Structure formats: structure tokens, C-alpha cells
Amino acid sequence: MFRNVGAAAAMVALVFSLCGTPAGAQSSPPSLLVVGGTPAGVAAAVAAARDGVDTTLVAKGSDLGGILTDAMMDQWDLNVAPDGDTIQGGIFREIHAALGDAFTPQAAAAEFGALVAHEPRIRLITDARVVGVITSPDGNERSIDAVRFRSSDGRLFEIPAARVIDATDDGDVAALAGARYDLGRQDTGIDERTQAVTLMFTVRGVDWQRVLETYDPARFGPGGALDRRAWGYSTLLAAYRSHEPGVLVRDLNLGREPDGEVTINAIDVLGINGLVDEQRQRARTLSEAETPHLLAFLRARLPGFADVTMGRFAADVYVRETRHFAGRERLTADAVWDGTIPNDTIGLSSYPLDLHPVTAIDAQAYAPVRHVYGVPFGTMVPLGITNVLLASPSISATHVAAGSARVIPTTIEEGEAAGDAAALAAHDGSTFAAMAGDAEAIADLRATLRGDGVILSYGSPSTLAMQTDRHSA
């Protein structure tokens, strides 16, 4: 079922050559290379640097934050316990304390930038996209010796690496290195289609007080409205008919920014492969064409929206799903639903199995129920590559399980665990592949995480499930 792209990776490695090194890059191997300026990438770099590891962090854009800054995602899909308390500590708790439940892209970028700037062991390179890898045999598997990048001005450069954390949302480094993966729902045996893609946008002129006063679950469906965000409205949107082909609008997620603009996460575009730039552009085009029709509908039917006008679109589309790698372990829907907390858990999650539609006839297959479960370290270790860890929605998980594990708070805890694991591996001269099968190494990693305030256990099996009407991203 999994793809093997080793031949393609080898060709890429042969084609590209070193053509200069930007400021911040280095010719000798860093202790750790983190690829991806995502929240997970920042967490990985910060955790490793705090453990005394010299780290190079490479981001494809000029700002840090990934979809929080590029796609305008302005609120967390929190992992919470039955009593409402967070089940996440560590670096995520620091970030959440600084940004709150809702925030602007600018605030997110500033916070992630400050976290990195505060760590002198982190060398940051921005505006560079990964384009290739160089690998060598490592027993029966392979290891990455260097990663190649193209800067925004077109120059090619490479960074040697003893260990790599792939914190790109799509697992770009692991894919180029030949790691096997499924695309979308390929593991179901149906096809390789993925969850819908969304282009977020803002509007002006919302009467937010009216939104707060008028949210009625009996009228609008499960959901709610708070000071900075509102979610739900599925009953209201059941009457909406999209004008563009392959477009659905089933509910709303709203975020109120300090200047009064309101972000809207609502338009799902089907049939998009987020790995293909042309298809991402198609999703943008369809969303921009659909938006005026949706706004007309909301002006007429949603209290507080009578006078809204269009604001701005996000810089990039929000891609929920692409690759799912084959790992030492695989997170399944059963493990999520049963609240399984394995011995190599590196963080707890509880977000529901939230699958946005793949086709227009898809119904939500799982109730919005939370189960507190553990993310296994083995899901972050791709098969076939010994010195790479994944920290992203592309960890080893089934299509259904990824509906929960894809959210950013979960990827941040993966990033922190990856950074700590890199520090331990560097100290012991070990590989990530070896760590995954070493109970003592996992115990050391978990002890480090606990010392940093990460929560690794919770309750008893009878207390793990909770009903929720939280919004879905």
C-alpha cells in the first residue's frame, strides 16, 4: 500500500549541486538539522537548543509559524481533559500562555520568532525550500548525510546533517530520502484522495456582540460563541448551496481579531492534492469565486453579519492532509477511540476523529467525542531511514487516525519530543531507529519530557472519554 520513492530521491540527489551557502548555513555537520519553520519545527529546535544541542532551523518562508501565519489559522484545536484542563504542558503551554486561545498571524509569527531568537544555539535560515537529499547505507537501511535547499533568490546550497527532524507538514525530507508513505486515504483501499482544502479569509463589519447574544444551538446546531471565536452553524449552513464545482460549506469557524476583522474558516474544496502547486492554486481560485456567494448568504441569515464586507484572503490554502508515512509504529483509529496510552507515549492528545469530506457525499463517520490517547514515539520514526524523525501531520497514522493527530498542538508536542530525542541520541551516539526499539532510551526520553513539564499519563480507562461540541478545523 505504501509508496517507495527511493529511486526518485536518488535522482534528485544526483541532479543538484552545491552552489553557495547562505548566511547561517555551515559546511561542517550541525548536531541537528530541523527542516520546517512550522510550530513543530520551532518546538523541535527550541527543545534541542535548551538541551545544549547546536541546531540549524531552515524555514521555507520569511516568518515562522507555518499554517498559523501562512494560512491564517488563528485559534488552537486544543487537546483538553474531561474537566476542561489542558493535557499538554511543555513548550506548547508556553506558546499557549503567550498567544491565548485565539490570536493573529502576526502575533503567532512574533512569538515563534522570539522563541527561536532567545536560543543562541539555534542558527535560523529563512526563505529556503528543501529540494533534495544525499543518503548513504546504514546497515539494512539508509541515513541522510546532507539536505539540499533552494533559496528564494534561486541559489542552491546543502547542509550536512548528523540527525534530521522533518517538521515540514508534508514530510518532504523523508519522502525525498525514499521513505514509504500512503497518500490521503490510500490505506483504506479506496483511492488516494485527501481531506478537503480550505482558503481562509477575513470580513469587516461584523457585529460581534450580536453574534455572542444570538448563538442558539436549537437554531444553528451544536457550537458556541465566545469573546474571540465562534464555531458551529451546521444547521444554518445545511441550506447553503455552493456555486462552484467541488466546493462545500458545512459549518463555520469564526475568529475575531483585535482590529475588528473576523476570520472565516468555512469553504472546503474537494479533490485537491496539496503536494501539487497547480492544484493548490485551483483551490484558491475556486474559493475566491465562492466567497461572494457565501457572504451574501450570511448577510441575509446570520445575526451580526448584515453589513459585512470582504477583507482579505490568506496567503496560502490550509491543507489538512497529504502523506502518511510507514513508521516503526502506526497510530490507528482504534488506538485513538480506545484511549490507548502506550509505553513509548511522548505526549497526550484528545482531539476528536475529525475528518473533513473527501467527496461531496461524505458524512461525518465519527461522533465529536474526545478520548485521551498517547502519541507513540515509533510513529515519528519512518521505516528505512535511521536518522530522521517526523514531527508533523505526516507521522505514521492511518487516514482516520490522522483526523485527530493532525492538529497543531499535537504536532508541537511531537516537535518537542523530537528535539529532546535528538539531544539524547547525540549524547549516546545512537540513531532514532535504534532508540525506537530501546526501552531504556525511551524511558530516558520520557523522563526528559516529564522534567520539561510534558504530561504523559492521564486518568483511568473509565474516565478517558468525553463528549464535546468543539469546532472542527
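The record above closes out task 2.4. Task 2.5 opens with a second protein, given below.
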Amino acid sequence: MSVHQPSFTLGVEEEYLLVDRETCDLSAAPESLIEECAKELKEQVSPEFLQCQIEVGTRVCKTVAEAGADLAHLRKQIARIAGNHGLAPLAVSCHPFADWHKQHFTDKQRYRELERDLGGVARRMLICGMHVHVGIDDDEARIDLMAQFPYFLPHLLALSTSSPYWKGDDTGLNAYRLTVFDNLPRTGLPPRFSSWSEYQRSVQIIIDSGLIEDCTKIWWDLRPSARFSTLESRICDISPRLDDTLAIVALTQSIMHMLWRLRAKNQRWRIYDRFLIGENRWRAQRYGVSNGLIDYARGEVVPFAELLDELIDMVREDAQALGCWDEVQSARRIASEGTSADRQRSVHARAIAGGASAKEAQKQVVRSLIGEFTEGLDNHLKSAVVEAG
């Protein structure tokens, strides 16, 4: 009997910060900017929780290359439109020196309700993330893969880390964003459910209690999407460079495919306790790729680059089947060169060594992030034209 194969289609959401090009500080998006973006990009762009944020989402894409071309187009247009208003977008999870006390909410019912329900926790939400949807239209397969995939969440987080600073201070963490986000309810590693019906029953209790109106207010690191037949990875910081984003997207899609391939052969990935996965989640949050994660089978911390090589070899068959082998292999570059968090610290250190003040060094970090936002976009747009031709 043949086994139904999911589509493994992709959808990627990115949240950006808007900064003043001169001061490098955050700036609320003028209404005219939002209107211009909506006119140009239609439903692919929307305001976010804070007025200094804007969110984009790809269309449903069949391949990583297609998602890359769509994101390149979105980034290029957002940068152009923001530039017309003296602003620039950043694809970074925390602004290096902005103060959350000084930001204002977007006047939208959903966000007003969040502020009401979450109080002071919501007011600190000056953070941005990247979400990857992978199309899996069988509900039981989705819930089964949701139990197995968390093992790999720390690996993806480590590669994405872009939030070392908070209010001008180096936090010592590579992904400070999660310390802010984890203060919200219904966040962190997902619970384990034995079936789709068990998941639905559990969620329905919270809905029936009047605490949330639907599943969109469940913010686990990995969740079944409330709007699409997808499994959505939400753990990652947003990457300033699009090439890094696509490496993470390709790994996410390939791991999902690998887990499904095992399931089709009546096999599965070993499910480890949340306590153990949580320890690796913390190590990824703290160190990014510069320190190792626990290899549970060996019972020891193994260098990240070694673990990544093993993971890439493991999903080779899947990445080749999905057409994203090049993007998957490019994750090795992140492991060897460092993540955005490492680059931000390097920019800051060079500025200080060159005689810059602490404030000017922070602005240098922002300027480097502005440059990385559009880095390599034309290559992805040209590749899309060639492929279409």
C-alpha cells in the first residue's frame, strides 16, 4: 500500500525593525509607508505588534529557491519604500540599543487585546523572529512529526542567533530574544501529544475557558499552524543575511522530510525528554555555534560544527529530493564563520578599538545590519529569472 506523501511546500515569515538612517534608532512606520507597502506587496506585508515593526510572508512556495526569490523581492521592495521615508529595515531579532519603554503599539484590535491580556510582559516585546511553515496535510503525521522534530530545534536556533544586545548592553547571550519571548504564556518547547484528537481536545479546553479565541495565541517553538496545513517552526531569530535564512529554511524542510521518510518505513527518531532538549535549547541561546550541544547518545558536549556535519549527512537524501542540497550545505559556512551575533560583536569591538564611543560603536552595528539586509538579493532574483526561463 502506498503512503501518502506531503507536499513539503514552504512559507516563510520574517519580522523587520525600522530605523532612522541618520540616528540609527528605531522609528515608527508612517501610515504612508504602510499604505505604500500594502499597495506594492498586497497581502504579503502587514503591520506588527509595535509601530517600528513590519512583517512579510512569502507565498506558498514549492522549493527553497522559490522562497528565496520571493523573500529577496520582499526585502528589496521594503528597503526601497523605507528609504523613500528616510528609514531602513533591519532583519535582526533585537535592536542593539533601543529602549522598549519608548515604543508604541500598533492600533489594531488583536494587539490591544494582547496588551490587555499580557500586561507588562507584552510591553517588552521589542523582538523579531523568523517562522518556517512546511506543508504536511495529514493531521496525524503533523502531530507525530511535532513530537520528533524538537530534537533539532536547538540546532536551528544556534544557526540563527542574532540578538546579543538589549538596551545597549551585551547580554552575554547570542539569542536574548527568547528570554523576552519565554515570559509569554504558551511558549517554549511544545508538549507531546499522542494523536491529533488529543492535541485538539487540550487546546479546546483553553479556548472554551475563554482565555484565547483560537490557536494563533499558542506560541510554542513548534506548532501546527492554525491557518494552514503546515507544521510551523518558530524558534529561530531572524537572520540579517538572506543566504543564512535560506540555509535554515532548507534544513528545516529537509529534517521534516527525513522524519516523514522514516515514518513511511515504520521508523521514527528517538523522542527525548523536554528536560534534555531544553538544556540544548539553552546552550544554543547562550552560545550560538561557538560552543557545543549535548549528544545524548554519547553523553557529552560535542562541537557544533561536528553535529552539523552529521545532520547534513543525515538529510542528504532528503535535501537532494527537495532540490535544496546547496542551501543545506551552506549552513556549514555559518558554523565556521559565526552567526549574526558574532558579527555584531566583532563590528562593535573594531569600532571601540578604533576610538569610537560606546554609542557610536552601537550605531556602527546598526549600519552593518542595514547593509546585510540587502546583501545578495539580486543573486536570488536573477536565479529565479533563469529558472523561470
